[in-house]
Amino acid sequence: MRRLIHDMVGSLTVIATRYLDLVLAREAIALNRIIMAEVTRFPTLRQIFWSAGPERHRAEIESFIRRAAAAGSLAAPNPRLAAGQFLALARGDTHLRSLLKYEDPTTSTARGAAVASALTTFLEGTRAMLRISSV
Question: Which of 62, 63, 64, 114 could form a disulfide with 83 if both were Cys (CB 3.0 to 4.6 A apart)?
Fold first, then answer.
């Protein structure tokens, strides 16, 4: 069990790090700005963007969470919701700050801190669920 949890923590760390690398890339930030500016004029952009990006990532994380829950290393009564919450924690306000050009979060220290905080918060929540569900 201890090895499963260790593997899960390592996997979630890699997932969050790669996700931040993806959404904070200059090209991704530029694309997000364009989509947000044009989605009211071109409503079909909404579905195309959502399906190709955010929904695809959420589905991949959901699948991982379902497997972790089935192995007993994570409590997630709603894996879909948990996946969205994990991605939101990983993104934090760093993504919005990047979109607004408020700061440049390209330093590995800033990203590492964001990933560590997201992981801690997510795992503490799932540990609490493990305790609650075992009562």
Answer: 62
Scanning 39-107, the segments in alpha helix (DSSP H) are 44-52, 54-70, 79-91, 94-99
Are the beta carbons of 24 and 106 closer than 8 angstroms?
A: yes
Rg (CA), the chain: 16
Cβ atoms within 10 Å, residue 90: 26
Spatial contact of 129 and 76, defined as CB atoms under 8 Å apart: yes
Dihedral, CA of residue 33, residue 36, residue 41 and residue 43, to nearest 10? 130
Delineate the domains of the chain, giving CATH numbers in brackets: 2-133 (1.10.357.10)
Task: Output the pLDDT for position 135.
Answer: 47
SS3 state of residue 112? helix
> For 118-132, what is the mean pLDDT?
76
Contact 105, 24 (CB under 8 A): yes
Task: State both tokens at 4.
Answer: 């499963």
Distance CA 36, CA 12 (A): 29
